[in-house]
Design goal:
This protein is α+β, with helices and mostly antiparallel strands. The protein has three helices and four strands; from the N terminus they run ββαβαβα.
Amino acid sequence: MTVYVDELRRWVPSSAGGTFRDGSAHLTADTLDELHAFATSIGLRRPWFQDVRVPHYDLTTKRHAAALRAGAVFVPAKEQARRRVAARQAIATSTGLACVHGRPSNHLCPHCSGITR
């Protein structure tokens, strides 16, 4: 199992205030248990967890550096997305489902990146 960080990105002009004025990145992992344990080890609080399509924690520049020092693996965001799509395709193929939600074969599921059989 592995914990990942992606690249730091600036989402707002640097003159703007706020926690992420110097940029932000994402902390993800192969499992939620590992994600939460690692996040705690670098000082992130559980309420900061974002349980969305891709469960993650947002990282400041300092937490990004701390995550890398603690052993997180840098994988660019686009590569992480490619791996998630490949994993969904493998599940769909191995189970014989049109998509991982079991929708009909003519359904283009936005959550499964349009996987059809």
